[in-house]
Amino acid sequence: MSNFFDKSDLSRSEAENIVSETLQKCDDGELYLENSKSESILLDDNKIKNSSYNSDLGFGLRAISNEIVAYSHSNEISKSSLEQSSENLKSTLKSAKGTYNHEIPKSNKKYYDNINPIEQKSFNEKIKILNEVNKYLRSKDSNVKQVTANFLGEQKSVEIIRSGGETLSDVRPLIRFNVSVMLEKNGRKETGVYGVGGRQSYESYLKDDNWKSVCDEALRIASVNLESKPAPAGEMKVVLGPGWPAILIHEAVGHGLEGDFNRKKTSAFHNLMGQKVASEGVTIIDDGTIDNRRGSLTIDDEGTPTERTVLIENGILKNFMQDRLNANLMKTKSTGSGRRENYRHIVLPRMRNTMMLSGKQTQDEMIKAVDKGIFAVSFGGGQVDITSGKFVFNCTEAYEIINGKIGSPIKGATLIGDGPSILKEVSMVGNDMMMDPGIGTCGKAGQGVPVGVAQPSILINKMTVGGTKL
Amino acid sequence: MVKDQEFLEKKASYCLGLAKKLGVTESSVIVNNSVSETVNFRNQKLDESNRSDNLGIVITTFIGKKKSSISSSNLLNDNLNILIEKCVETTKNTPEDEFNSLPDKNLLAKELKDLDLYDDTHIENDEKIDYLKKLEASASSNKKIVNTESSFSQNKSNFILANSEGFCDGYKTSSFTSSSVVVAKDHNSMERDYEYSSKCFLKDLDDSEELGKLAADQTIRKLSPKKIGSEKIAIIFDKRIAKGILSSFASAISSSAISRGTSFLKDKINQKIFSGIINVIDKPDILKGLGSRSFDSEGVKTETLNLVEQGVLKNYLIDTYNGKKLNLKSNGRCGGSSNLYFENGNINYQDLLNSNSKTLYITETIGHGSNVVTGDYSVGATGFLVENGEFKYPINEFTIAGNFKDMFQNITLANDLDFRYATNSPTMMIEGMVVAGK
Prior knowledge:
heterodimer, A: alpha+beta, PmbA/TldD fold, 7-stranded mixed beta sheet, 22 strands, about 20% helix, B: alpha+beta, 2 domains, 7-stranded antiparallel beta sheet, 5-stranded mixed barrel, 18 strands, about 25% helix, globular
């Protein structure tokens, strides 16, 4: 664990005193300290293009009074710097008349090991694997014109000091291994991308030449796209494959169920609690407690232990995801969903691992039920307009379905739908729930945080496919 | 207060000195500091205040043709010693790349023009609050507005870029930004829209009441949208969306995409890629320009580039590494374009609206639907149906798709260019795009 006060003129007890004094008339708040070390090694265009190492240290002091949040952060962990932040907060909240909420749940459960993945594999070993990836892909298919592969490793130590000196801490490992391959055939270029990752050592993902299966998958997607034809345009049935396509759930309903948008009544879901928002058989949870997953957290960035939050149960809206601020204002409890990208940012209610649970049908039954539609297997990014509820995402691997049979691959197209109504259009839920491979990053208010998604195959009765073929 | 030049220079030369002692052949360092203060309002009340003080350093070391870099926010010498040692060690272990090097000395910027990028004015939080009160009162005056979130931010930055070839320069910049995001509601729908203003100088910032009114008007007119059918039709992109198409063009002509072969515009230099009346310019020395700079992030001097002349692609955006790979000189675009814009077209805005009996006017797109490898473009969109030059009704939940290769050939621009952003376009019409709707 990091000792944040080692090289500082500020002692732990002085810091505790400043925190308690700053927050005495506030409802909530804390000093958040963070030390992160990260590494990135990139192979591109036949060479190790970039090797970089980052060490980041800083604090953020937060005070909450009613709906008002005052925040100040700095890289310098020093007495003068913390005092300046304290003054800044006090001047914003000079009329605060609250009572500090000392209550915070405790748990001994941990969902990942205290390791530094960067140190667990030598630099030279990582370079060796990247070079092998390059060689492997280029020798496997002569159409391969470009290979990019990279390792990203991080260890983030956080400490939360609350008024009165209560201290909570966590050490979070995170790695990611990505491969991107571009093929060129008859003047046409297409790419395929695949990756794996989570809160474990590199070795857990790469033992026994596992990297080859990551390469194979990237190459397979690129090869499929090389044969793809223009996507259809218009409203039709859509079958989503299991796993990563659950970013549809993330965009379509996940964001709309975050506490802040509902407290502010700007989410299309804000007045639907307890009501039917999805077809029967649709259950969606947001879970921070799955071992070693990318979106898992032992405690969130306010110190609350994470949990498995049921959002929608058998079609009925049950819970929103909450941080302490929004939970307090909505007279409920934090769900351990308070997250921030790093100490430069304020806490917001965010998703962790968002999952639709398995139903009873098979993927085969779904395909057979479609006369004309598409089968979407993988996606790139997605986005949502919380207020109107409209969301999109981009297919990176998809096929047409004609008369109950999977046909030709189709070019990357955008799918667009309406969040509050899309889950009512789900007519079959598969028995094949799968987690994503551990590569997702969710963006909100300029902050990116690692997340996971999971779902079984599902059949959606109608969605608009944004192709070019009318 | 943002750190002064002397502090940043001292850190930079400390790093270069230490790296040299540890045996590197070349090195470069960027030290920066930015201090920003933001006040947020929600529904006419104070919601958040945020002060941010960011220090950062990036050091790149070369040993012959081997290269590595480190970055940190901790500028204490103790920490820098550890990191630079680590960086040098990693450099030794990194395979050689023949194109790795600092920029050619004769390309480095020498005499810097004063581009007027720094306003010393400090606006206190109380003054920000006054501005936001007026803004939100104006934004909330219509009963249909049910939520307003507005923000006022002051940012002051300073940086030094230094390298072992003797380059050492940097300058202060400032920005003042106000924004308002509002939600409107009627019995059919709830919609959100926004407006913002960002300027180097406080006195140039948009009037608070006008900005609030604009945000509200733009949102209210989106209420009760209709769905539309699928068809091939002309699309008009509002300026705030049209600039995104120009950004995709800039990514496609970056020397890294070209040298890696991952751009649909590879090998298109001196070829006609736009319709013949289109000119694209990247001008780094606009006074007070949001994208202005005296040199790029490697210290290379920047000059105005005519990227597209009468539809013909004339230049890529080139940095040192990819330039060497392509056998071209860096043109000072490490880090991308500066003030990038389409020159005005030759018809006015209303004539553009009138030019087809039916068009779709797009005010917002969502999704990451631009693929610069293939040129494919497919995004979700929101906007208005325009018939015979008149806005008929709002539309949403549809997509627009095409391929940049065709879209670029079918662009018509209005003559209403202004410089609100770093990348700017006049209102743009593209014919023959495919809309997918209900």
